[in-house]
């Protein structure tokens, strides 16, 4: 038995056939080429038009004939037309060329190139826009923040007079106060926070990654300062709980990004999403640690305005709606060099192109006006906005039901 590849477009047996089964009408396929006009997709040989790429792939062949084991010389180019469209950026041409070169059309899940090419056909009529997403504050976070407030108040009551046995508050410094002589030596510490990610442990300040927890704990500090910061043991215990990690999971329609850390402070946390990028600046814990997660380009496109943000006592959860249903291989488009930054806010790279407007203020108004004029689809970079709440007083927390 010899299995051959059929190069007919949209071959009815997914491009694999046995030589003995070939015959004058063994294959149903499209003799024409793909046609993408605005949101409509179809084949030049027949009339059916659909908007969804999956449906396009599923349009049954309109013509019967034998399977074709001969690879054609000329690459298949889709006929792409977008009303009022300007020249496509080079990268999308490249993606199209790769996608429609000589590959088989039917496959699942799609490769990123295929998804990107599909979405690129709609891309030029879209303006990337930053949207700020408003969080839903879960009751568990209200409780946690109330605890933090109390800890803060109790801390004010703690004696400030250093006593023998008090630890140094700084991460990575193992010193305890033994007497006046302890003030003579320098403090070597990690100004960052511990990050646990994909089995690796490291400090956000120096990022020396290790999978061994003991080795991680024993990593000498990366900064030195003259004096230790002696604190009451209770306070030191609270600080030692501060660490952070992230992960993501997905369904065919959603991609969910989780950041795990205790006591996120909503009014100092901002989440921005566009159709292809994510930036989360978050602040957590009694030390008010400022961290960021930034994805320079997502693996696929999302519908930013439909993003949801939940913040609980130990987790920040961003649920984004995929523009096209299907499975993503990764969170970020590694294939084209995209990266995920996770670390101290002040080390965060700039991820937004200059022309990306925020969804508030004049830029947005201008973008909307343009949309009306050109009948373009605006996909916004949604700033998942800061909450309206001004105070985090314990009293307010107890009285107010945050939306
Ligand atoms: Zn056809
Ligand atoms: Zn065939
Ligand atoms: Zn120290
Ligand atoms: Zn360090």
TrEMBL record:
**Which stretches does the entry tag as region Disordered?**
64-122
Q: Is Repeat one of the keywords UniProt gives this record?
A: yes
> According to the UniProt entry, which residue ranges have a biased composition of type Basic and acidic residues?
68-98
Q: Start and end of every CS domain?
A: 241-332
The name this protein goes by in its record: CHORD domain-containing protein
Q: Which residues form the CHORD domain?
A: 6-67, 168-228
Key words of the record: Metal-binding, Repeat, Zinc
Alphabetical list of Gene3D superfamilies matching this protein: 2.60.40.790, 4.10.1130.20
SUPFAM superfamilies for this protein: HSP20-like chaperones (SSF49764)
- Pfam families attached to this UniProt entry: CHORD (PF04968), CS (PF04969)
**Molecular function terms from GO:** metal ion binding
């Amino acid at each position: 038995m010899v299995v051959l590849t059929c190069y007919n477009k949209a071959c009815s047996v997914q491009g694999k056939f046995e030589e003995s089964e070939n015959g004058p009408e063994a294959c149903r396929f499209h003799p024409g080429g793909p046609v993408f006009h605005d949101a409509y997709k179809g084949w030049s040989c027949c009339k059916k038009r659909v908007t969804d790429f999956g449906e396009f792939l599923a349009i049954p062949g309109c013509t019967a004939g034998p399977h074709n084991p001969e690879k054609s010389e000329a690459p298949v180019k889709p006929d792409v037309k977008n009303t009022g469209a300007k020249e496509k950026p080079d990268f999308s041409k490249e993606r199209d060329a790769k996608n429609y070169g000589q590959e088989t059309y039917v496959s699942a899940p799609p490769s990123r190139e295929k998804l990107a090419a599909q979405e690129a056909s709609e891309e030029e009529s879209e303006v990337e826009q930053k949207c700020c997403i408003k969080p839903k504050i879960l009751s568990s976070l209200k409780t946690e923040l109330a605890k933090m407030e109390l800890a803060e108040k109790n801390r004010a009551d703690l004696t400030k007079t250093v006593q023998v046995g008090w630890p140094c508050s700084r991460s990575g410094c193992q010193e305890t106060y033994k007497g006046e002589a302890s003030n003579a030596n320098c403090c070597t510490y990690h100004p960052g926070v511990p990050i646990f990610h994909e089995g690796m442990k490291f400090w956000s300040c120096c990022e020396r990654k290790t999978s061994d927890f003991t080795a991680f704990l024993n990593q000498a500090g990366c900064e030195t300062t003259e004096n230790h910061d002696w604190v009451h043991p209770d306070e030191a215990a609270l600080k030692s709980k501060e660490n952070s990690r992230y992960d993501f999971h997905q369904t065919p329609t959603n991609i969910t990004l989780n950041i795990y850390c205790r006591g996120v402070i909503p009014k100092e946390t901002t989440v921005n999403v566009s159709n292809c990028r994510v930036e989360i600046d978050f602040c957590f814990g009694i030390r008010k640690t400022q961290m960021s997660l930034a994805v320079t380009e997502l693996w696929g496109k999302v519908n930013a305005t439909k993003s949801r943000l939940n913040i609980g006592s130990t987790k920040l959860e961003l649920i984004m709606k995929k523009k096209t249903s299907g499975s993503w291989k990764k969170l970020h488009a590694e294939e084209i060099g995209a990266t995920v930054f996770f670390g101290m806010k002040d080390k965060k790279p700039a991820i937004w192109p200059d022309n990306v407007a925020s969804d508030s203020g004049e830029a947005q108004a201008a973008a909307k006006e343009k949309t009306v004029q050109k009948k373009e689809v605006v996909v916004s970079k949604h700033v998942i906005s800061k909450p309206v709440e001004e105070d985090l007083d314990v009293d307010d927390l107890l009285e107010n039901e945050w939306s």
